From TrEMBL:
<dbReference type="InterPro" id="IPR001753">
    <property type="entry name" value="Enoyl-CoA_hydra/iso"/>
</dbReference>
<dbReference type="Pfam" id="PF00378">
    <property type="entry name" value="ECH_1"/>
</dbReference>
<dbReference type="InterPro" id="IPR029045">
    <property type="entry name" value="ClpP/crotonase-like_dom_sf"/>
</dbReference>
<comment type="similarity">
    <text>Belongs to the enoyl-CoA hydratase/isomerase family.</text>
</comment>
<feature type="compositionally biased region" description="Polar residues">
    <location>
        <begin position="285"/>
        <end position="295"/>
    </location>
</feature>
<dbReference type="GO" id="GO:0016829">
    <property type="term" value="F:lyase activity"/>
</dbReference>
<dbReference type="GO" id="GO:0006635">
    <property type="term" value="P:fatty acid beta-oxidation"/>
</dbReference>
<keyword id="KW-0456">Lyase</keyword>
<protein>
    <submittedName>
        <fullName>Crotonase/enoyl-CoA hydratase family protein</fullName>
    </submittedName>
</protein>
<feature type="region of interest" description="Disordered">
    <location>
        <begin position="263"/>
        <end position="295"/>
    </location>
</feature>
Length: 295
């Protein structure tokens, strides 16, 4: 039996490949269930700190839900279709959206319907120049069902999202970049290397800080600013006693590269290194830029 999702782990990065190339990596029920199970395992695996999600072959990232399987569920009634297809797909996109480790979609071809909705849900995405996006559900006489009517307007704005949802028009990767659906557009051969490079940049930071930022943004983005600030404060309060924050402060004061433990356990005692405060204009220097100050 062919594995519907392939896994390769290296240097703290797990690459997950949707593996139904003969079906343009369509999301059948077995693939969705397999991907959900893998995400559950990866989230508690401390050796994996970032995920790259891509599609097998060069034709498709994912052409969306498996229409033949979906039509069989519809034939058995609305309740069956809701349970088998809609709720399963929404569970997947919600899981990707709320994952506490960074997920980078490497969109290597067609991203239609559910494939586009996966791209909307993940926190980061890079598209190849050969990618092609669409919200074609209206061509089947139905609305999107994996969250597309909710996430795309939040990313692109109501009017631009409605144009795509109501027409089913395809759009190119540069348009996806303009809409906020992807972070970068690169040559096909550079797609996976670009995803790895972005993942490595993130991995240079505290995994606890990364998880806290992902949680604060995901939970806060649909709240009021006041409620979002409470969530942000909760995430800081959770991090404040950890060795990662102490290590970050110690490393900055000592002008050295930090070595983050990456554990939520709190040390019994750990004094921050004593040093005179920076003089006026003494800039915080990160590994990638200068002149930034910690917020």
């Amino acid at each position: 039996m062919i594995d519907t999702v392939l896994i390769e782990s290296r240097d703290g990065i797990a690459t997950l490949t949707l593996n139904r190339p003969e079906k343009l990596n369509a999301l059948n029920y077995a693939l969705i269930d397999r991907l959900l199970a893998i995400l559950d395992a990866i989230e508690i695996d401390s050796s994996v700190r970032a995920v790259i999600l891509t599609g097998a072959g060069e034709r498709a990232f994912s052409a969306g839900g498996d229409i033949h399987e979906f039509s069989e569920s519809v034939a058995r009634g609305a309740d069956v279709a809701m349970h088998d297809f809609v709720m399963r797909g929404q569970r997947l996109t919600a899981r990707l959206e709320a994952f506490r480790k960074p997920i980078i979609a490497a969109v290597n071809g067609l991203a239609l319907g559910g494939g586009c909705e996966i791209t909307e849900a993940v926190p980061l995405a890079i598209a190849s120049e050969r990618a092609l996006f669409a919200k074609p559900e209206i061509n089947l006489g139905m609305p999107p069902t994996f969250g597309g009517t909710q996430r795309l307007p939040r990313l692109a704005g109501r009017k631009r999202a409605l144009e795509l949802l109501l027409t089913g028009d395809t759009f190119l990767p540069q348009r996806a970049l303009e809409l906020g659906l992807v972070n970068q557009v690169v040559a096909q051969d550079d797609l996976i290397p670009a995803a790895h490079e972005l993942a490595r940049r993130i991995l240079s930071h505290s995994p606890l800080a990364v998880a806290s930022i992902l949680t604060a943004v995901t939970r806060g983005i649909n709240q009021s600013i006041a409620e979002g600030l409470l969530i942000e404060g909760e995430q800081f309060a959770r991090m404040a006693p950890t060795a990662d924050l102490r290590e970050g402060l110690d490393a900055w004061i000592a002008r050295r590269k930090p070595n983050y433990p990456g554990s939520w356990s709190c040390p019994d005692s750990h004094a921050i290194s004593k040093a005179p405060p920076p003089s006026q204009g003494d800039a915080f220097i990160s590994s990638s830029s200068s002149g930034d100050t910690p917020s």
